[in-house]
Design a protein that fits this description.
heterodimer, A: alpha/beta, four-stranded parallel sheet, B: about 450 residues, alpha/beta, six-stranded parallel sheet, about 50% helix, about 10% strand
Chain lengths: ~250, ~450
């Protein structure tokens, strides 16, 4: 029996606005596992876009807001590897020169976890009781791999899903070309990169491409949709949420 | 220089270039991965390389003076050049003083950075590049497009045509062996006849004044041994404290660069040896922006780069655009952080944005330069010093919305209603102002209910 955890959801501005199903699925998975989920309505954005585009004063203000909101949270879970990576890798830098903020960052940051990290590493859960009878390929996303070092945590979750046929994605560790404002500032290069990613996905014969970040899925799904492909994209949380049809 | 996105667009349209790059980067990537996997102490080697470079950069003033004294004690001369113009003047004067008008060159990025060939040509000095790929670029009148494989953008058919045209070979096969032989015939004559050589340096040893050049072909070895006069042009950051420190870098460099355990030729020399090799030896130490990089603590690790080019070969951007789009002799991720710092961010303000921040470069860097972090730092400098006004207005407005949940919720509703006229069955194919996205990718329409609305209603 796992101890009941009070989880504070950081849904991310992107999922909140454009992919609420990823947030909803996260809530349902966590509740199904017996945990209590809260949503602090003051939350907005972690500051990733401002940070990565060079607006560091704005990013600092959003980082300060973030740690203020979650100051007393037991654990903060986000369905986004890149947002968690922003918090973990850059909040310390953003807080430099502000001792009070630096102290808060130091307290809050270790409690901010990505969904699969929370499930597999914190809770030690791999089988979340899901059933998803589809052929699936997994895009491991750059921040999952190289910033958070999630390793095989998402794969372990997927392998425990009933009916799921997991097919390997060639050159899986390569970027999808999203990169936030990179996708617009360097639209041609970004498009060339996602084209190769999408061709690799189509080559697997998978029905669904899964990832742990709504932003990458926006990019991959956007290209698949433009190509009028039947292949869908889904957030990892949505796969984990799916229950056997009674 | 033209902006990266514009230059990239041109390169992306060149299908032959894309094929050449894809094949070449994939080959080197695989070889590097295999060579690195052989070493179970690879991470410790990286740590050691990083620590040594950090130490050198922290005490660079002392190491430079120590190096200067050691070179002089070994019979060499040391010259200092503030920038490219000074470097050109110094080297041209040194060559002219020999009475010769021809030089052979060892492959050197630093001299390319300085435009030294052009400076020497302007002084009436004839320069021959002797690295095969550098020679190909020189004959083609093109800039190198890769740090280690300068002609990576050309395939062997293109090189055969070039050699026929420029070196006067009537019949020439495009077999690699035949192409190498043609270059050998051309270069061997140059090595025998030319009395002055110019080299770069991979490393300089502070305590002994030793210079180290690593290469694969042996053409550099000809240049550093046969001529009477050798002029080494070296960036001030290239020092290591002691000879034994080379042990670390001579393991890190070849495995990272070519995927070899050891590079075929490693040349080390200290000053002048009577009756053996060049009898006049000069080192020209180059600043050309490096001291300003040194002064920026976040940017400083950029100077630790040992020019292995592993970051290029794993970069999703470089693989698609090639090196020329970076508008500098330093392409790829390292170029995206080095060039803006050497020239000033205002001179290359699009380069820090030429990355999706995927982090593949940091993962392979043998001296652990956190390139994504430096990119993000430089983006901050671009915004502070040269930010486009329209973008600033948008980003500030977004930040203002993000600082308050009610304002954010209003923005979400605005996104929903504002995109409604463009909704075609759940996707947006064209959105005014976002053509850069929608030209190649559909955008999903904001769903009828945001997450926070769902939560409030549950």
């Amino acid at each position: 029996m796992i101890a009941r955890v009070r989880v504070s959801l950081f849904v991310t501005c992107l999922a909140d606005t454009l992919a609420p199903e990823a947030g909803i699925a996260t809530v349902r998975v966590l509740e199904r596992l017996g945990h209590e989920v809260e949503f602090r309505a003051e939350q907005t954005c972690c500051g990733q876009m401002h940070l990565n585009t060079g607006y560091h004063a704005e990013a600092r203000a959003l980082a300060a807001r973030f740690v203020g909101i979650y100051r007393d949270a037991e654990v903060v879970v986000a369905p986004s590897a890149s947002c968690v990576a922003t918090v973990r890798e850059f909040y310390g830098t953003l807080a430099e020169g502000d001792a009070a903020l630096a102290r808060e960052v130091k307290q809050v940051v270790p409690r901010v976890l990505e969904l699969s990290e929370f499930l597999v590493e914190r809770l030690g859960v791999e089988d979340v009781g899901a059933s998803y009878p589809h052929r699936v390929t997994y895009h491991p996303t750059c921040h999952s791999l190289r910033a958070l070092h999630l390793g095989d945590a998402p794969y372990r979750l997927l392998r425990a899903v009933r009916g799921l046929d997991l097919v390997e994605l060639p050159r899986a560790d390569e970027c999808c070309g999203f990169g936030g404002t990179f996708a617009v500032k360097n639209a041609d290069t970004s498009s060339a990169i996602v084209e190769d990613k999408v061709q690799a996905i189509l080559g697997t014969g998978a029905e669904v491409c899964v990832a742990a970040d709504s932003s990458c899925l926006l990019q991959i799904g956007g290209r698949l949709s433009r190509l009028r492909s039947d292949v869908r994209v889904a957030h990892l949380a949505q796969v984990l949420e799916s229950e056997p049809v009674a | 220089m033209s902006s990266f996105p514009d230059a990239a667009r041109e390169a992306l349209g060149d299908k032959q270039l894309r094929r050449n790059l894809r094949l070449a980067t994939a080959t080197i990537r695989t070889r590097r991965a295999a060579a690195v996997a052989e070493r179970d102490d690879w991470e410790q080697l990286r740590d050691a390389g990083q620590a040594l470079k950090e130490r050198v950069l922290r005490h660079l003033d002392q190491y430079l003076l120590q190096f200067e004294a050691a070179v002089q004690a070994a019979g060499g001369s040391v010259h200092w050049a503030r920038d490219a113009a000074e470097a050109g003047e110094v080297v041209a004067a040194l060559v002219s003083a020999t009475g010769h008008r021809e030089v052979v060159k060892v492959k050197s990025l630093t001299t390319d950075e300085l435009g030294l060939n052009e400076s020497l040509a302007a002084a009436g000095i004839d320069v021959t590049e002797t690295d095969l790929a550098e020679l190909i670029c020189q004959l083609a009148g093109e800039e190198p497009s890769h740090i280690l494989v300068p002609a990576i953008h050309k395939n062997r058919h293109e090189i055969r045509d070039l050699f026929q045209r420029e070196l006067g070979f009537a019949e020439l096969s495009d077999e690699p062996r035949a192409l190498a032989e043609a270059a050998r015939v051309h270069l061997r004559k140059k090595f025998m006849e030319t009395r002055v050589a110019v080299s770069g340096a991979n490393f300089g040893v502070a305590s002994t004044g030793t210079v180290c050049v690593v290469e694969s072909e042996g053409n550099g070895r000809f240049c550093t041994t046969l001529p009477d006069t050798l002029i080494t042009v070296m960036g001030i950051e290239k020092l290591v404290p002691e000879p034994e420190d080379l042990e670390v870098f001579l393991q890190l460099l070849p495995r990272s660069a070519t995927g070899e355990r050891m590079n075929p030729y490693t040349s080390l020399w200290s000053g002048v040896t009577a009756g053996d090799g060049p009898q006049a030896f000069h080192v020209v130490l180059i600043d050309n922006g490096r001291t300003s990089v040194l002064a920026d603590e976040v940017g400083r690790p950029t100077l630790a780069c040992i020019r292995c080019s592993a970051c290029l070969n794993v970069c999703p951007v470089y693989e698609r655009t090639g090196g020329h789009a970076y508008g500098s002799i330093y392409p790829g991720p390292i170029g995206a952080i080095l060039t803006p710092q050497l020239r000033g961010v205002g001179q290359a303000s699009s380069l820090p944005y030429a990355s999706s921040l995927c982090g593949a470069c940091y993962e392979v860097c043998p001296v652990k330069i956190d390139i994504p972090r430096v990119l993000v730092h430089l983006r901050g400098r671009v915004v502070d010093e040269h930010g486009p006004r329209s973008e600033r207005v948008v980003m500030r407005a977004l930040a203002w919305s993000f600082r308050d949940a009610r304002r954010f919720a209003r923005l979400q509703r605005l996104a929903r209603t504002g995109t409604r006229p463009f909704n075609r069955g759940g996707v947006i194919s064209r959105l005014p102002g976002l053509g850069a996205w929608t030209n190649t990718r559909a955008l999903r329409t904001p769903p009828p209910q945001t997450f926070r609305e769902w939560w409030a209603a549950r």
